[in-house]
Design a protein that fits this description.
The structure is a homodimer. The first copy, chain A, contains 8 helices and 12 strands. By secondary structure, chain A is of the alpha/beta class.
């Protein structure tokens, strides 16, 4: 196989299997090439990902080492995704009253979801999560894509204990936005006790349901290593969770004036160390 | 930019944007190359996808024409995905009683979901769907991935009309497996009346909920061009929908003997024209 074809085949393989660890022997055998030639190929593939702003190749040596494509997103592409989100959200027909916005089309748009998932994958890759966890329903595509990019299993917490989930653990939590007690439920066999979770969700106002997720995971002695949220409302300023990363912030929904104030979370592209 | 790098960059761009139509001018400008050189590059990239069994490049000329990566999956990889599914499903601890199986981990496994989504994308690419539609919850990752691969918006039908969905249309339908009337609800602004839908779901027994989806879409004069289901129960033989494509079939769940009979749907790889 010619070098051109090998480069193409490697990029195809890596992008189809993000964060999967490959033994270099795998590719040497597949292409019938020496390790030195593979190293040159991998160097070039790494350049391609870096030039495209889509990630990089991580090579580690020794036992348990190998080659892995770590997906990412450039600052320019983060800004593009944030701009696209702000433009979409800034549409008065989304205002539903009571501080609610219609956002299903945004959370079900594959390109926007992929961009946001890349932000979370890039940020949390090195945090060592074992699962990506969300609560149904609107955040599932975003959480599923983040999980795929990180090569981690997805866990979906249900609002009601379903028969098809087998034995479950349920909690009640206080939801500020609906001003009432709500329930969530997780299948006992969905998670390994003592493991680590990355929480992903579509929207946060006071943080009640994120805090609910943290609490239900604590029932399994699970630690939360990070929280990624697509859209965060600026009010209330005081959230029930402190460590989260948002893509965009909604400052105000003016129902009478039919106006939505939404802005990019500049921390994502400011180059400063995020306080997470 | 050297040819090697261009090939890598093209594969990365195409796999990140499946089914997106590109003007060839886009790449000529980006790489600073003539149309003839781009044609050679595209030919090579097409070979890469075909050799890897991950799809092909479709080139169309004239007004509205361009270059597009159509994702696919080889028969060998379909068999591999089916085998992996059968092995996973064939685990007696999944038996929940009443003919239910625990399958959340399977439907939330990114690699399995990607493989199944590729089967559906390959099969239904030419059918001209405008949306991929599912009903919450377990089929959402599969439907979302299928939608991404086909570059289509996802629509998620809810079990309950949610306030955050705005005005909704709801129907009641008969679910054979739960032996009762159930409800589903769709946001009015989620779909364009008169458009075409591809339905994707995780599991089907009698087909009651798929028929419910067909009915709720009919309220918007929407046609269903296909139905893709991950796991279909062989019983009852008579389903409430006729045109569907399954990945694997569960023939029997023997609760007492703690045994599950599951097999690949051989039609997917038999090369015969599927009756869809």
């Amino acid at each position: 196989m010619k070098k051109n074809n090998r480069i193409g085949a490697l990029v195809d393989e890596f992008t189809s299997n993000p964060c999967k660890l490959y033994d270099s022997k795998h590719f040497c055998d597949k292409f019938g090439i020496a390790k030195s030639s593979l190293s040159e190929d991998i160097k070039l593939v790494n350049e391609v990902f870096i030039d495209n702003g889509t990630g990089y190749i991580e090579s580690t040596s020794g036992v348990g080492g190998g080659i892995r494509y770590v997906p990412g997103i450039s600052d320019d592409n983060i800004k593009r995704i944030q701009d696209a989100l702000c433009t979409k959200i800034n549409d008065p027909s989304r205002i539903l009253g009571g501080g609610f916005l219609y956002t299903s089309d945004i959370m079900f748009d594959g390109k926007l979801v992929d961009g946001m998932a890349r932000v979370f994958a890039q940020k949390y890759y090195s945090f060592g999560a074992d699962y990506v966890v969300t609560v149904e329903t609107k955040g599932i595509p975003l959480a599923a894509r983040t999980a795929s990019l990180l090569n981690l299993p997805l866990v979906v917490i249900r609002r009601e204990a379903m028969y098809s989930e087998g034995s479950t653990v349920s909690i009640n939590y206080f939801s500020g936005s609906s001003d009432r007690i709500q329930k969530m439920s997780i299948a006992k066999r969905a998670v390994e006790p003592g493991s680590k979770a990355l929480i992903i969700d579509d929207f946060m106002r006071g943080g009640g349901s994120i805090k609910g997720i943290v609490e239900i995971l604590a029932e399994f002695d699970m630690d939360v290593i990070g929280v990624g949220i697509a859209i965060v409302a600026s009010e209330p300023v005081k959230k029930r969770v402190s460590n989260y990363l948002s893509i965009v912030c909604v400052d105000e929904i003016d129902e009478e004036g039919r106006r939505i104030s939404v802005r990019a979370n500049d921390q994502l592209t400011s180059g400063t160390n995020l306080e997470i």
